[in-house]
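Hi, here's the filled form for the chain we discussed.

Project: internal
Contact: R.S.
Residues: 167
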Amino acid sequence: MIDQSLLLLFPAVMAFAAAMDMLTMTIPNRVSLLLVGAFFVAAHFAGLSVQQVLEHVGTGLAVLVVCFVLFAFGGFGGGDAKLLAASSLWIGFDQLPTYVIGVTFAGGALAVLLLVGRKHFPEGSLNAPRWFLQLQARESKMPYGLAIAAAALWVYPQTVFFQGLAH
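And the returned structure, exactly as it came back:
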């Protein structure tokens, strides 16, 4: 029973992170911390070996270093960097290239949607919720957590985590 609950934890947390980023343009630290903490519990129930756990931790650390560099040069937000690193723990090295490609394509699609939306519906032209108007603002950044979550949900069923928890 707990295996199935853990199977849904990662997608639920990623969906929450995407919603928070879209609504508030921030991803709370507790989201990334929850992913990291739950990783070790889920690894036990998924039947991952110590070597597999260490490989996943190494993947998360490597992604964190790359994201830290991107953050330092202004190419990435801090919440996005932490979310990408924490989610990479769950994705693992074997699916990391697919995950990065997915994040890239989802981010590109999101950027196009925002640019088209900002062009066709300029600020002040819509009577919409505040969070939507914030997305429309030209000076507003892109909620990249949406792209990260979309790619994570796309890749997750292919991971050893999913396979271990689903069976």
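Let me know if anything looks off before we file it.
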